[in-house]
Each structure stands twice: as C-alpha cells, then as structure tokens.
Specification:
This protein is an alpha+beta fold and 563 residues long. It has helices at residues 5-12, 18-23, 31-42, 67-79, 83-86, 97-113, 170-182, 187-191, 194-198, 206-242, 255-272, 277-313, 320-346, 352-368, 370-385, 425-429, 456-471, 506-526, 545-556; strands spanning 137-145, 148-158, 164-168, 200-201, 204-205, 393-396, 399-406, 410-415, 420-424, 433-435, 442-444, 447-450, 482-488, 493-501. Helix content is 51%, strand content 14%. The chain has a five-stranded antiparallel β-sheet with strand order 9-8-7-6-10. Strands 11, 12, 13 and 14 form a four-stranded antiparallel β-sheet that branches.
C-alpha cells in the first residue's frame, strides 16, 4: 500500500514541539513548567540517559535505549519526513519501500489516534515493568478501532553486540494497515479554510498560531463576559428582593474559576477537533497546567478568606493577626510545593534528589536561625495562650511597662520612662511575668503607728472607726476588711489595716487610697492621739534625791528627747 504525495507531505510536516514555546508567551505563569515539559520531550533521541545498571551497555545512536526514547525518536524521524530512519524503529521483516510505507502508516495512526500521554512513557532502559509476565514489553497507549481496542506496544529486542533496543512490536505493526484504512480527513481540515490549514509559519499551521494567541485569550474573555452577565442577573434579583438600589453586582466567577472553565473548554474542543498527536500533547499539557494553577490559586484564595474570617472573629486577641498570617503563608507554601511536586511527577521527573538537598539545606537554615525560630515559636505560644496582650501593664524582672505590640519575634513594651523596649519572645516565655493590669482588685495595706501615750480605749475607738470607714466605702470588698492592733513596736503602737478595693486602674486606686489615708489621719487626731515617728526616750540617773524627783517629774510629763 502506498500513500499519496499530499498525505505524505502533511505527515512529514507534523506540528513541532516548538508550539509550546510560542504558547508560553501568553501562558506566562506556567513558563517554568513548559520549560520542563520541553526539556522532557525535546531531548534529542541520541541523548536519553541510561541507568547505572546498564552503564556499560553501548548506547543506541537512535535513542532506542528506553521506551520514551524509541517513541519520540520515531515521531521525530516521521516529522522530518525521514521514512528510512523511522523504519529502523519497527520490529518487522519488511525492508526497503515496504518498511518505509509501514512507518508512514504507523506515524499517521499515532498522529490521529494515540492518546496524548507521551510524558508518562518510561524513561528507563528496563521499561516501566507494568506487567511482570511481560517484562520486555511496554504499553505506549490504546487506540479505538472498528475491530476493537488496539494496544500500541513497544518491545525490547536483544541485538547481540548492539545491545538491547526498544522497537514497535510485530503484533502492533500487523494491525496498522487496517487501522490506517479507517483514518479520515480531520474535522479541522473540513471546517477551516484551506489557507489556515495549509499555510505554515515555522512549520506550524497558521490556525494553531491563531488558537494560541487569539483563541485562548478569547475564551478567557468569554468567561469574563459570562461572569458579568451572571453577576448582573444575581445583582438585579438581590436589589429587587432587598429593595436596595445601591447593592453592587457580585463577582460570580473568580479568575481562578474562569481559568478552570478555559481548561475545560480546551479539553472539550480536543475531543471535537481532530488534531495531530503533538498538538494534542501540547494542548493537554496546557489544560493540565491551567487546571493545576487554577486549583492552587483557588486554595490560596480560600486561605486568604479563612484568614480574614478568623481575624474578624479574633480582633480582641492580641497578636492573632500575626499568627494567622504565618499559618496562611505556611499553607500557601504547602499548596505551591504540592502543585510543583504534582507537575514534576506528571513530567516524569524524580524530585527525590532535590527534596534531599532541600532537606539538608533546611536543616542548615534551621540551625543558623535557631534563636529566631525559638522566638517565633515562643511568640505563637504567647499569643495562643494570651499570656501577654496589648495594653497590659507588665513587670518583667526590674522593668515595668505597658505592652504596645505583640509580634511573632518580639514584644514591644513602653516603660514608665516612656522608652520603647523590644523584648524577644523567647525571653518572655522563660521569665516569670507579672501582669499588673490583670488584678481584679487592689490591696490597701497601710500600717498606722500611734505614739505610746495612746491609751487602750483610744486604740479600740480608732480601730473601730477605721473598720467602719473601710466597710462603708462603696469600692471596698467588705469581706476582706481587717483592722487589728498587731504589735508593740520599738517606738509605736502598730495597727494593721487590710482591705481590697475595686478600681478601674492604678490611678483610680491611688485616688481612693489618698482619700482613705486622709480620713485615717482625721480619725486619729479626732480621738486625741498622734501618729508616731521614730524616737527614743532617755532616762538620766543621778545620786541626789532631787535628780530622782526631777526624773520622775519629767517622765510623768512625758518629756522626750529626739535622738
């Protein structure tokens, strides 16, 4: 069976992998991912790596050492129109023009029917080993035919000194001529004008350029128009139900959702429009990248919404915004890292070595930033426990001040000297923190010292009146009031006054204390007593009876000499 020159020419000019490089200009967010993709599929056929187990085996110059190398090498040869080289990838007894014709038919069948899963082909010399009973065979894909499903299989063949190479199996090749007869003109060739299909720019059909630079942006704009229409309809309904003309139209479709819609549209169009294998591989990769990026985008939006929601509910909790922001960034990092791992797995790249290197680097960074991490962990603990809050008056060692900000690394405190001190959270977590502003009431605890000339009856009256003063005060805790004559001091009769008072803050308590002390002084003076001050009484002894009588007179008069 021979092919017409026109069909042979079309198959020799299959869309190249450079299509992805041009599409990256619009899909800028997936630039790195497309570079990985291009690296995975554009590697020359003679440079595919082999495993260490077979490093001594001579490499095949056509790249047939691995299943992926064999398939990509065959497609590259068919794209260049080199049927003689393409025939070398077939396990067939045919030679000459017959083998070249079979290679062209196989290329046409793969180009139209094979699923776009080239990046999932094994890149190991031993293959994927998916079927232990057939270790030397690897499944490239399954295509639908009128006679049922046909497995496209490559088989590992031992060529003696030439080593083992992967070739398209004889069983697959036997069914190719019949499947080739089933091929028909692609739908895109029937619908589009001929100049869009036949005219090429850099070996790529003109309609594919238009699809990249016009079709995809147009789809995205159409999703924006759909979002506007839905928002207008929903907004009109809301304004009518709530009877508020000032309500704005909601945004029904976020940009991430619009990106998902574009990816879904691309996948649907791929089933309708008949494209070549490489074009389908490119568009399936584009749709996958869009889907992954959209999902990552949506998850970060959900994290942002959750942070705002929790921040509103915890506005009164000091430092909660910092902790929530840290949690959000960690979750965003996990989302991005997971998305990157998924993409690397899709392209068949083993990230084990990179992860091991990142782990070693992470340990080094953790050791270098040990103190910083300690402060951050301590800050999270302080904020979670609410041990320190903005506005609290603290006593840290010898320092007293008011907390003005609680951060993840340090806490800023305004001291009584009006200076700002930044204390690392690690230090606060290891210190005994006294929160002065957390007192539920204030302790009134003066000791009133009266002169020794004060009589017992006077003491009883004074203690009784002070007790009544405290008990009747509107801010006192009456159950805590205690006024007792406790000791005979060195120079005074001591009365202990104890009571707890409710006050707004320290200044308010000082006002109450000032008023009470003044009332205590009035009570003492009102009963004819006096508040003692440190003093001593000196007794002068003499031999004459006059001296003794003078001394007794002086003592009875209560004369004292200040020390």
């Amino acid at each position: 069976m021979t092919l017409s020159s026109g069909s042979r020419k079309r198959r020799s000019e299959l869309p190249g992998w450079r299509t992805s490089a041009h599409a990256i200009a619009w899909v800028s967010l997936s630039f790195l991912l497309f570079c990985l993709y291009a690296t995975a599929v554009q590697t020359p056929a003679n440079k595919f790596a082999t495993s260490e187990a077979e490093s001594e085996t001579p490499k095949d110059t056509l790249g047939r050492d691995t299943p992926r190398g064999a398939v990509l090498g065959f497609l590259a040869a068919a794209r260049r129109g080199n049927s003689q080289v393409a025939a070398l990838y077939l396990q067939t007894p045919l030679r000459g023009a017959s083998s070249e014709t079979l290679a062209e038919e196989l290329a046409a069948v793969l180009d139209r029917r094979l699923p776009a899963r080239l990046t999932q082909l094994s890149d190991k010399p031993e293959g994927s080993l998916s079927d232990p009973l057939l270790p030397n065979q690897d499944l490239v894909g399954t295509i639908e035919t009128d006679g049922g499903n046909l497995d496209i299989v490559v088989e590992r063949v031992d060529r003696g000194k030439g080593g083992k190479v992967w070739l398209f199996s004889k069983k697959t090749l036997d069914a190719i001529p019949d499947v080739f007869q089933e091929l028909s003109t692609p739908a895109v060739d029937k619908v589009l004008p001929k100049f869009l299909v036949e005219r090429r720019l850099a070996t790529i059909p003109l309609f594919e350029w238009l699809a990249v630079f016009v079709g995809v942006p147009l789809l995205y704009l159409l999703t924006g128009l759909l979002s506007w229409v839905l928002g207008f309809v929903i907004g009109a309904i809301r304004r009518r139900l709530r009877k508020d003309l000032n309500l704005k139209n909601p945004q029904v479709l976020p940009r991430a959702v619009r990106l998902l819609l574009v990816a879904s549209a691309i996948r649907w169009l791929m089933t309708v429009v008949g494209l070549s294998l490489l074009a389908r591989q490119f568009w399936s990769t584009v749709a996958l990248m869009m889907t992954v990026l959209a999902c990552m985008w949506l998850l970060t939006l959900v994290n942002s919404w959750g942070e705002r929601y929790l921040a509103k509910r915890r506005q009164r909790r000091s430092g909660s915004a910092s902790v929530l922001r840290l949690i959000r960034r960690v979750m965003d990092g996990v989302v991005l890292f997971s998305g990157l791992l998924f993409i690397l797995y899709h392209f068949g790249i083993n990230p084990t070595a990179a992860l091991a290197g990142a782990g070693v680097g992470g340990i080094a960074v953790a050791l270098a930033a040990q103190k910083t991490l300690e402060n951050v962990v301590a800050g999270v603990s302080l904020i979670a426990d609410q041990a320190v809050r903005v506005g609290d008056t603290l006593k840290l060692g010898d320092m007293i001040g008011t907390v003005e900000d609680v951060g993840l690394r340090s806490t800023r405190i305004r001291t009584t000297d009006r200076t700002m001190v930044s204390v690392p959270n690690g230090q606060i977590a290891n210190m005994s923190v006294e929160t002065l502003s957390a007192r539920d009431n204030f302790w009134f605890h003066p000791v009133v010292g009266l002169r020794y000339e004060t009589g017992a009856d006077q003491l009883r009256i004074i203690t009784s009146r002070i007790h009544k003063l405290l008990d009747e005060h509107p801010s006192s805790d009456s159950s805590s009031v205690r006024v007792r004559f406790i000791r005979l001091g060195a120079f005074s009769l001591d009365i202990e006054v104890v009571a707890y008072f409710f006050a707004r803050d320290w200044n308010h308590f000082l006002e109450i204390q000032e008023e009470l002390l003044l009332h205590v002084m009035e009570i003492v003076h009102g009963e004819g007593a006096e508040i003692a001050f440190p003093s001593q009484t000196m007794y002068i002894a003499g031999n004459s009876s006059d001296d003794h009588s003078k001394l007794r007179s002086a003592h009875s008069a209560g004369g004292k000499l200040a020390s």
